[in-house]
Amino acid sequence: MAVYALTGFSLVSLLSFGYLSWDWMKPSLVADVATDPMEKSLPPTFTRPPHIIFILTDDQGYHDIGYHGSDIQTPTLDRLAAEGVKLENYYIQPICTPSRSQLITGRYQIHTGLQHSIIRPRQPNCLPLDQVTLPQKLQEAGYSTHMVGKWHLGFYKKECLPTRRGFDTFLGSLTGNVDYYTYDNCDGPGVCGYDLHEGEDVAWDQSGKYSTFLYAQRVSKILASHSPKEPIFIYVAFQAVHTPLQSPKEYIYRYRSMGNVARRKYAAMVTCMDEAVKNITWALKKYGYYDNSVIVFSTDNGGQTFSGGSNWPLRGRKGTYWEGGVRGIGFVHSPLIKRKRRTSWALVHITDWYPTLVSLARGNLSNVQGLDGYNVWPAISEGKESPRTEILHNIDPLYNHAKYGSLEDGFGIWNTAVQASIRVGEWKLLTGDPGYSDWIPPQTLTNFPGSWWNLERLTDGLRKSVWLFNITADPYERYDLSEQRPDVVRTLLMRLVHYNRTAIPVRYPAENPRAHPDFNGGAWGPWASEDDEEEWEGGREPLKSRNKKKKCKICKLRSFFRKLNTRLMSNRI
Fold first, then answer.
1. Do domains 51-388 and 399-441+455-504 have the same CATH topology?
2. SS3 helix, strand, coil % of the chain, rounded to 5?
3. In angstroms, what CA-CA distances link 115 with 111, 363, 393, 394, 503?
4. Of 119, 153, 125, 113, whose CA–CA distance to 395 is shortest?
């Protein structure tokens, strides 16, 4: 049986701390739209397709919002959530690219080939071009579509860019991690480039502007220049609060009493982002959009605890399949919601936004086959039962296999060495190596090396490869029931087998030296020429060229870049 070490506060008080409510009696930074009590009680009707604002934050932990009892100030998010519907049974993916791909396609990773890791800057890889994206479906429904912020769905050729995948305009970064002021991104020693783009051009002139402010200002400009009589979709993918931990000094000063430097900077970034959302909400009201708008707020994955984030009281962190990695912060705020000011425990997954938002936009889903998402608007707006009963968190055949897993442990139907996780009803199953498994409270004390903040550590059970939890009764994943309920384990393993039969091959090609920013004017951007007759699909070799002369040139280029790559790799080592 697992043994836990408990220090500091009592377990009951700490778990309760994770669900303290924010003081709703304080003045709000977001003004009420309807002041007449009768007006608030009237059920709104859709007279025309609503304006949709989807806000996605990066690496914000489950605990890092006011209404989850955080020590971080988020008054705008708290008020928007309180006046809307809080989603407390909402799931995302454990890392960046998978969450974004599932939002944009409405499909699980296993159905887009992106089930392993993220899309890296030098990989010839992107969101599959045969996928009809959410913004493309909204364009079909008559929407103006705009993206502001972090893309991270590949850019090796122009067809992969946001403006080729359904967005009319784009301002943001293509990679997954840039400086908040200079927009530089280094993908290893000496492999650095600028990454801020306006449409399909490099936005050199915007350098020096803090990205959270820049993106909120761009949203305001879009709203000011558009007519509220025409439907609009704005996807705001904040870089915040991903590393590097950078924030204007005035925000850091608010948290000067926090002893932990990383937590202090992180908190400042969260509060700065909260104020950016306030400015976006204000613009919606100023320019006449608010009364017919739907604001969706979502995190992209769990918080990174080594960088100031907290998922307390959940287990695990970013990059893991424990609840701390995959249970997200989510809420919907809209005058169009029929049952406002409540908490919903309906099961919702990030893939559900695709069919939900297209349906709200009165778009056509009949010609879209194979969606893994469901229309959950009735569950959100009216409190009806969610149509979703299970979630495939993922199956990753390339992730390091668990040392003690085997086909025998999986009843002969599933190799438990493979990293996978699924939830069916109230049950959650994990196989393989789910990732770092501690429970980590908020890092509010002074700095100490290593994992000083671990309140509880798992001290045995390291030879396991199967875990089973009743997530409804045990949301903190403290009681593994895999040995007591082998019948449930077998049933969920059968579901993994079912999903695995539908999976397509993993797309995770080797890095290509042609992507180096030095060959692209010093900036990250598309590097595969349209003249090339090579096709980079997954890890397969490029297709042969029909033009012998062109093939010869490509061979010479390959030889040159192989030698260059060898030098770069030797320098990296």
1. no
2. 30, 15, 55
3. 8, 28, 10, 7, 9
4. 113
The residues, ordered by sequence, that sit 6+ positions from 149 with a Cβ below 8 Å of its Cβ are 56, 171, 172, 173, 211, 215, 235, 236, 237, 238, 239
Query: Cα separation of 128 and 455, whole Å?
Result: 42
Question: Is residue 175's pLDDT more than 70?
Answer: yes
Residue in 68, 146, 152, 516 annotated catalytic: 152
| pTM for the full predicted model | 0.86
Whether 473 shows a pLDDT value over 60: the answer reads yes
Residue 336 CA, distance from chain mean position: 25
Q: Determine the residue type at 465.
A: S
Instruction: Examine the residue annotation and report whether 152 is marked as an active-site residue of this protein.
Output: yes
SS3 297: strand
The one-letter code for the residue type at 226 is H
pLDDT digits (tens, 9 = 90+) for 127-165: 999 999 999 999 999 999 999 999 999 999 999 999 999
CATH classification (class only), 51-388:
alpha beta
Find the angle CA(105)-CA(110)-CA(111) to the nearest 5 degrees.
45
Contact between residue 328 and residue 62 where contact means Cβ atoms under 8 Å apart:
yes
Contacts of 242 (CB under 8 A, 6+ apart): 58, 59, 96, 150, 176, 177
Angle between helices 353-360 and 96-105 (to 10 degrees): 40
Kindly list the domain boundaries of the chain, sorted by start residue. Answer: 51-388, 399-441+455-504
- Angle, helices 261-286/211-225, rounded to nearest 10 degrees: 10
Architecture of domain 399-441+455-504: 2-Layer Sandwich (3.30)
CA–chain centroid gap for 187, Å, is 20
- Assign 5 to helix, strand or coil: coil
Rounded distance between C-alpha atoms, residue 395 and residue 128, angstroms:
18
Query: N- to C-terminal Cα distance for the chain?
Result: 43
Worst-scoring range by mean pLDDT, 17-31, 73-87, 236-250, 492-506? 17-31
Q: Give the angle 87-93-99 at the CA atoms, nearest 5°.
A: 95
Which candidate, 241, 237, 334, places its Cα nearest to that of 284? 334
How is residue 523 annotated by DSSP? B
Which among 51, 63, 96, 333 is annotated as catalytic? 96
Secondary structure tally for the chain: helices H, strands E = 13, 18
- As a whole number of angstroms, the distance between CA 538 and CA 70 comes to 42
